[in-house]
Amino acid sequence: MFYLGIDVSKKAARYFILDESGSKLKAFTVDTNKESLESLLERFKSLSITTDNLLIGIEATGSFWENTYSFLKNKGYNIVLLNPYNTNKFREALAKKAKTDDIDALVIAQLLRTGEYVQSQVAEENIQALRELTVLRYEFVKERKNLQRQVYSLLNVVFPEYEKTVIAKPFSQASMRILSEYPTAKHLSGAKPKHIEKIVRKIVGNNFNIGEIQNLIDTARNSIYSGRAKDARATTLRMLLAHIANLSNSIEELEKQMKEFLSPSDSDDSFPGQNLLSIKGVGDKTLAAIISYLGSDGSNFPDSKSAVGYVGFYPKIYESGQSRRDNKISKRGPKVLRWALYMAAVASLKHNKEMRTLYHMHLFLYK
Question: Please, what is the Cα angle at 242 between 238 and 247, to 5 degrees?
Fold first, then answer.
């Protein structure tokens, strides 16, 4: 049996092959393009290596591993995806203080020889597609919240009384339209009620009346805002609102595609887990995150404990001699899935009587 460790990078990968006894058979570098990967098969053949007597390991480093992994997998080779955290711990156990491409590939090959490696899961194509959408939505939502915080902070300077007016919710369509044209109290104070009414008239769901608009203008005229740097701050606010609007449109498009994955219209099949949607507080986005990381049927994990361990929702226990520390939740696991489950839990506490009762019961027992 031969063991091949691959250390991947953007343009090339280092290959290190060990024989059955753990001795070095060959080490070489291969560019990450189709022609070079095809030549790799000829190199294996010259070394009397076949699909039956070779075990390949590759680290899940960024996204560089995917094309090499798929190429070798499609050629019939037995290849496993390894978590960089586990290989790094194995390197420490081997006391490999230096870090080179050769050492990285060697460590992977030696880990394969031990048989003690933990194989990371490679998602099916449709699950991978759903994960891509879910992760991007998470990043966009996080970025939008950051921009919204900046808007709130700026509004508290340029129009601190906005909460007493019809634009108390500054991210509604009508409020954003008004603020884009009249970003500060100084700009609003010179606005005409009919003009603002014209701005919001065609917005679906808008119910601004002329009295509320007049109150908005009057409040702006009496604002404490001094007008300091009003033009620069107006530009900042307009740009922030434009970015928020673009992100909201992108998030809406991502959610639409996610929903199509969960409920395909061209097939009688649908993703499992639909029963989770019957739980108040759990929605499409939560279901998409769960399926993206735990798989469509749960077969990636032998039991529920393994799944919980993967998510990282378990207490870290520290006991050494007479020393004890409070158990704290682990910080390991996919951040997108942890965030989605946390938000679902918060929503369940608000809208789900059974979940709320269960939560308070456990809170009482463990106090």
Answer: 150
